[in-house]
Amino acid sequence: MNNARTILEPLAGSIPSVSLEEMDSVRLLNRTDTKYVTDETTLVSLLEDARAAGYRALETSGSKLSPYTTVYYDTDGLKMYLAHHDKRLVRQKVRTRIYENSGEAYLEIKRKDNHGRTRKKRTRIPCDELLGFGGDGDACDYLARHSAFTADMLQPVLSTSFARITLVNAAMTERLTIDTGVHFSNYRTGLGGSLKDAVIIELKQDGRYASQMKGILLDHRVKPLRVSKYCIAETLTDPSAKKNRFKEKVRSIEKIINDKIEVI
How many separate domains does the chain show? Predict the structure, then answer.
């Protein structure tokens, strides 16, 4: 474990808390989303500056570093992956996710429209359905109502695990999710690996207000990079998958962390 990771949890712990109830009360009605990639050493400085600027960190079950496990579902022909690769404006992702701190699991459906707006729907499922919810009538009905896919069209393709820090600014006009320690495993190929000390940041802001975090990121030379954990992991672990568009994103991440991403 490197030095940056060693001090990450206590540093996050030193940031004032915001509750889940307070976070849920924030409605970013004119929301814009921007993704960034940096490394853990830079993240330490970002968190210090965020704390000084009055940002608060989401605390659940007594911790501000929340582990997640996600399973992505797709068709035999990877229709959802290819929609992203081929730059389809309207596309979806279907996944199950367990929030380790709370022990809650959900079936989640993310839909992007032709205006670039992403909407997420989710329903609670038992934890033992993470790798298969086909026998759960309620979950299957929910998927059919909110997605272009049905359960019998899908199979678990890939899993990711990571630890997340969620920040909100004092004015409650922007949120920031920070994902570290990203590991992945492909169920179809048996290959897996990690993004090493890459950090994936997503800034969700109310487009009517200036973003203080954008200034902090710029100060640390952290630039926007549109990445999908599912698509990057699939690119790395499936030799047969179409990947021309994503190869450059993998190289960009490797340049940021100054290391080669390997799979085993």
Answer: 1
Per-state percent for the chain, helix, strand, coil, to nearest 5: 30, 35, 35
DSSP assigned state of 172: S
The parent domain of residue 114 ranges over: 3-257
Q: How far apart are CA 232 and CA 221, in angstroms?
A: 22
Band (pLDDT 50/70/90 cuts) for residue 205 is confident
Distance CA 171, CA 13 (A): 21
Distance separating alpha carbons of residues 204 and 209, to the nearest angstrom: 12
**CATH number of the domain that 49 lies in?**
2.40.320.10
Reading phi first (left if > 0) and then psi (alpha if -120 to 50, else beta), residue 62 is in: left
Q: Are 212 and 219 in contact (CB under 8 A)?
A: no
DSSP assignment letter at 60: B
pTM of the model: 0.94
239 φ/ψ angles, rounded to the nearest 5 degrees: -60, -25
Does residue 263 belong to any structural domain of this protein?
Answer: no
Secondary structure (DSSP) of 183-211: EEEETTT--EEE-TTEEEEEEEEETTS--
The mean pLDDT value for 34-44 works out to: 96
Average pLDDT estimate for 110-130: 90
Q: Residue 120 pLDDT > 90, yes or no? A: no
What integer pLDDT is reported at residue 1 of this predicted model? 41
Among candidate residues 73, 69, 57, the one with its CA nearest the CA of residue 182: 69
Phi then psi for 161, rounded to 5 degrees?
-135, 145
